[in-house]
Amino acid sequence: MSIRFERANSELQRCISDIIQNKMNDPRLNPLLYISEVNVTPDFRYCKIKIALDSQKEGELEQIIKVLEKSEGFIKRELATMVNMPHLPKLQFIIDKGTAATVRINEILKTLNKEEK
Fold this sequence. Notes:
alpha+beta, 4 helices, 19% strand
């Protein structure tokens, strides 16, 4: 991946995270929500955003994805004021399965440590 796309991905991740955490006043958004990865296509038309949550509530994360999908217009409007890009990409929010697996493994390891003591 070129440096241009890496910079674009990191800047989009920073800006979208700021918008979700500071500018959206939806009570359904969990404060433990974070963006784990952003991938923009080479033509800057589409952007996949992986969303993770520091809990095991799968249903809650699916509800948050729906809220973010409905708020795409607001997020894009705020993003337009923050970044200068050739095109504002279509945002696609995805649940980050890798982070959920990591949280689950950590919980299992915690229970193993308690059993040894």
